[in-house]
Amino acid sequence: MTQVTLSAxxxxxxxxxxxxxxxxxxxxxxxxxxxxxxxSGCGKTTTMKMIAGLLRPTSGDISFDGQSILSxxxxxxxxxxxxxNYLLFPYMTxxxxxxxxxxxxxxxxxxxxxxxxxxxDLVQLPGFEERRPRQLSGGQQQRIALARALIVQPNVLxxxxxxxxxxxxxxxxxxxxxxxxQTEMAITTVFVTHDxxxxxxxxxxxxxxxDGRLQQFDVPDAFFDTPKSVEIAKFFGGTNxxxxxYQDSEINTSIGRFSAPHSAVxxxxxxxxxxxxxxxxxxxxxxxxxxxxxxxxxxxxxxRFRIEIGEVEVEAVTDPGAVKMFSDGEEIPxxxxxxxxxxxxxxxxxxxxxxx
Amino acid sequence: MTDLKNVSADQNTELAVPVSSAGSGRRFRLRIFxxxxxxxxxxxxxxxxxxxxxxxxxxxxxxxPAIFPTEYSGRAWSEVINPNNDVVxxxxxxxxxxxxxxIFSILLGVPAGRALGLYEFRGKRLVEWLIxxxxxxxxxxxxxxxxxxxxRAGLSNTIPGVILVHLVPTLPYMTLxxxxxFANYDTxxxxxxxxxxAGRWATQYHITLPAIxxxxxxxxxxxxxxxxxxxxxxxxxxxxxxxxxxxxxxxxVRSDPAIAGALSVVFILPAVLVLLLSSRYLSxxxxxxxxxxxx
Amino acid sequence: MxxxxxxxxxxxxxxxxxxxLTITVLLAPAxxxxxxxxxxxxxxxxxxxxGYFPLIGLHDFNFNAYTAILSxxxxxxxxxxxxxxxxxxTLIAGILAVxxxxxxxxxxxxxxxxxxxxxxxxTIPHLVGAVGVLYLFSGSGLISRLAxxxxxxxxxxxxxxxxxxxWAIGIIIQYVWKEIPFIGVIVLAILLxxxExxxxxxxxxxANRWQAFRNVTLPLIMPGVVSASVIVFAFxxxxxxxxxxxxxxxxxxxxxxxFESYTDVDLAARPQAMAMAMVIAFMSSLMIMxxxxxxxxxxxx
Lengths: 356, 295, 301
Prior knowledge:
B: 2 strands, 73% helix, 2% strand, globular, C: 301 residues
């Protein structure tokens, strides 16, 4: 079990361009599964490669259990990276691939063979020893790559987009496998993904990066309930943002005044955010306003409405039955659940200022 | 999953190597230093044999053990430029032969490379071996026989004969390079162009040519240089009637180092020009260069 | 239904025929040139080596030329020195070329310049290189002069013979000088297309720098190294002008021996020249086949 700490970690590939990773501070808990999430090019894979020792940071520090590991060669760090495209050595058998790390440690051949067998059992591909990488499907290659990493009993396991190259049905299987192995072996695991859903389902904690800077580091539900900025909320599927002025647990907007006990900011300019699921159609009472239904989409398990309220348009997601109750053009009351309203700062930099 | 517990039980501690007080910076700098020592050594070795050629070409007296000539002169260069000696004419002749050889190599090698790179067919292995054979079997081993044939065909001692025999070593390179290029080429681009209304030739010109151009440049560079520096094939088939720079240079190596030096410089220059024009295709990950590695 | 199926079948057939026609048209010119020149030259040479020379009334086949050269001790020694030249040059050039390619792979300042100088050698004719080596390494060459200035030797005779020497050092230096960039450029292209990720995986799994190179990078570039060194071996085994300029008078390299026999005024030496050419062709092909077979096995294991 290893705790990984990144302090002011920075990587700048050349002088002219912005840093790929910019003063990143992160405390990755030992034995947990942490996601580095962000759009492509946000610096997440760069961060991972720096942890693995495959890239030198421009500045900043990385430490395992409080000891800086920057001077330690990648092969001695015990931080093993599994690449997105698996990279099984093409001219080796599966057994040679999995046993590679142990062979490098000059372990006895018989011992290697028996551990390889254990690993193949672990990733549920027993008897694959003598096959060649190109004979395997993508999902199988992914498992072998995982086994090849796990056999060296890494202190830290680094997975680069572990699910992105897999078909939908294989993803679920792989996700469960990773989760199960990670819990059983209690390895500090960091994985990189651009898919927020993947991060939410798999991770204990998520570090969200935009443009090389940490936006928010939190448990998954926090990104839905209490995002620190409009950008973060948008990245997690938030669609409704109404600017206003926040004072005394109330936010005053162009379409009315809403009580909002949960806020990330104090008195001043602010943005009301509310997830589409927290808007109730046809409900009167406090925190409700009148709007006109502009359009709707029936998606099967739920329905999505676009509603015009004054000069803003909001999106609401309801159970599919609502389609029969309301029709386009109809004027209805719309209620914003006060407990689900989350008030955010209008400035995009605020999240960075309080240090993540 | 019982094994898993065993695996975790003997947690390997050697993985967590203690942090050494010497920073990684020093080791890193040492490696960078080593790299520069290596690169400097390499470049020195590559450039060293060229240096005396330049010095000799402008020397008048340069007796052992002087490190630099005791007297300089432009004699060698004025001999080279002197129209009576016709060095320029010979150089022009050599370039012309190399140019024609290159053009023929392209005309024959590109289609052959396309066939080998794009299609699977019966006897492909045999065709590949046949085309590679002139690379694997040294030129001298076949040129004696070719000479016999050419005497009968009236091609010996002629420029066309020399051009033909130069094709023996150049054509395999061109084909090899182009088959590497076409192996990475998607013919669907051509079909797409045809379906958008491009004719057969327009497609070749606008779609195929730009795609294979880097490969053609590399292949042509090899063909030109092989022909340009060819000695023994020209000597035998040309029979002394066809003069090229290598033949001219050879005569002066022992007898007059100054002129040999100047001729060597003349000999290097066009090739350097060709390289300057094509170097961006040669460096980087051009599939064509890797194509040679596909025997 | 039935007629439709037949029509489809005919169309498929004609498509296959069209494909075959395309392949034939594309390949025919190149194959024709190689068959006529290369195979023609090889077969003519072979017939002549067997003593078949109808123009001067020789119609009988015999192995006289072969028995003559193979029983000649000088020929055997020529073969040994030629093999030594080709093998040593290829080995040294191959190792140094891989090392150079590894040096030139990462990004560094001035890389474009270094790469230009590196590939510059590719374009410099062998003959020029040989002249350069001669003026650099001969007894009165530049290095010998530098050694004298440094007080290491007194006379050109004190300089160890490196040109026209029995160990063919000058020839090997020239070949190594010329072929490092050739193999190096090919290996570099392969290195760049393979990328550094496999190596990263290996490092991350616990391989040190050398182990990662030995176990991962080398097997990945090996096919390219083999191909390039095959070309180099064949060239150095059969090249004429470099040993002619930088070699000894005895034993001569095989190509020099063959060329001199061929241009000998005594026409009786012609079949022997042809026989030597055949031995060069045969031995070179044989050694290359053996090498490729061995190296394939190495890559697989």
